[in-house]
């Protein structure tokens, strides 16, 4: 195979991987309650085998809540705007405003509610095992 053909094959293979990865990003927005928007921002493999980092922007309208759920890995939250109340299993409720941060351990059941009068937004970063659902609703 010539050098040019090998380069073209590599470029096409990379393009295929990128398209495939975009198609496999979960479409959480289709299953969201009214007043809640989850926007997938990025997803990358980590140096730890089988692990990936996922970043999502979550916007919740005033008075709306995202019910009890958990994640298969750690969740690191940075509040961008508004005021959230987080109900984390085993802890008293916590109220956070823009600039505040929160760490939720893997598998911990929690819920979030916008307790302010403007849309509340957060940047959520997940460190999870590849191939597992990002979110599981609690029963």
TrEMBL record:
<dbReference type="InterPro" id="IPR013096">
    <property type="entry name" value="Cupin_2"/>
</dbReference>
<keyword id="KW-0456">Lyase</keyword>
<dbReference type="InterPro" id="IPR014710">
    <property type="entry name" value="RmlC-like_jellyroll"/>
</dbReference>
<dbReference type="GO" id="GO:0047869">
    <property type="term" value="F:dimethylpropiothetin dethiomethylase activity"/>
</dbReference>
<dbReference type="InterPro" id="IPR011051">
    <property type="entry name" value="RmlC_Cupin_sf"/>
</dbReference>
<feature type="domain" description="Cupin type-2">
    <location>
        <begin position="57"/>
        <end position="121"/>
    </location>
</feature>
<feature type="signal peptide">
    <location>
        <begin position="1"/>
        <end position="30"/>
    </location>
</feature>
<protein>
    <submittedName>
        <fullName>Dimethlysulfonioproprionate lyase DddQ</fullName>
        <ecNumber>4.4.1.3</ecNumber>
    </submittedName>
</protein>
<dbReference type="Pfam" id="PF07883">
    <property type="entry name" value="Cupin_2"/>
</dbReference>
<keyword id="KW-0732">Signal</keyword>
């Amino acid at each position: 195979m010539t050098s040019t053909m090998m380069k073209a094959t590599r470029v096409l293979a990379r393009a295929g991987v990128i398209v495939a990865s975009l198609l496999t990003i979960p479409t959480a927005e289709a299953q969201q309650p009214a007043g809640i928007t989850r926007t997938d921002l990025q997803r990358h493999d980590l140096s730890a085998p089988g692990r990936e980092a996922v970043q999502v922007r979550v916007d919740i309208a005033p008075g709306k809540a995202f019910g009890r759920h958990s994640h298969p890995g750690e969740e690191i939250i940075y509040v961008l705007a508004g005021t959230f109340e987080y109900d984390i299993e085993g802890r008293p409720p916590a109220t956070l405003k823009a600039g505040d941060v929160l760490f939720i351990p893997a598998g911990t059941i929690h819920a979030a509610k916008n307790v302010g009068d403007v849309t509340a937004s957060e940047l959520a970063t997940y460190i999870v095992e590849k191939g597992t659902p990002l979110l599981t609703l609690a029963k």
